[in-house]
Amino acid sequence: MSSELLVLIPVAFIAGIINAAVGVGGLIIMPTFYSTLPHFTPAEIMGIDKCSSVMGHLMSIKQFTARLRLPWTLILPTAISAVIGAYSGIRLLDFMPSDWMRPIVIVVLAIMLAYTWFKPQFGHSDTSREPTRGDLAKGILSGFAIGFYDGFIGPGTGSFLLFLFIRFFHFDFLRATACAKVVNFGTNFSTLFFLIPNGLIHYEMAIPLGVSAICGSLVGVRVALRGGNLWIRRLFLILAATLLIKLLWETLH
């Protein structure tokens, strides 16, 4: 086993736990990728990350669907739209830098964080209903936008999806987390249609890290189910604030 894998495997396990519980595992794994694999291009690092993330998300979905009832009539159109958005985003990444989009993301993330902080009951209980045509339209439009962000920039997609399902469709944190996993799996999987044909995935790295992410997701889902909405809300606030600080730092420097 290479020295890089010895460093990355435990980090992928921790990222898998956080991804399964609330998303934003990229905050942990991506900086480690760049520091551990300086000779890899950003596209190659994204290839390793997306391939391993798909494996972890798939295990999370399997666990959540065995324990929770999910609104598939809403999730599937949202996921399909997000897949198209993610593929569009990663193709655009080939032609132009993503830095221009960073200030927009910072503003949206700050609003999202403040909204959650000042509304203690946000996501506390599930008041969802059978999705209407308006709900489906909102899901498709927001799914495309978040999917585009995932393909174009990446880290924080899980947080945006979690907020989407709570704010617009009135799920609690637990069910919103499960729904976000399905959509996030779709966005990650769609990028593979671009990454694989272009030979941007190093499978000798991606597969061991994917196995580690699977093990992490087994732990993360159990932690989420036992901790409930209050625990997920607290972790969401911490990680969203961390992401906001990271983006601000990168923008200012």
TrEMBL record:
Keyword Transmembrane: yes
Organism domain of life: Bacteria
Topology versus the membrane: Multi-pass membrane protein
Keywords of this entry: Cell inner membrane, Cell membrane, Membrane, Transmembrane, Transmembrane helix, Transport
Pfam family, one: TauE
Localization in the cell: Cell inner membrane; Cell membrane
Residues spanning the membrane: 6-30, 68-88, 100-118, 139-167, 173-195, 207-225, 231-249
Coiled coil regions in record: none
Entry's family note: Belongs to the 4-toluene sulfonate uptake permease (TSUP) (TC 2.A.102) family.
Protein name: Probable membrane transporter protein
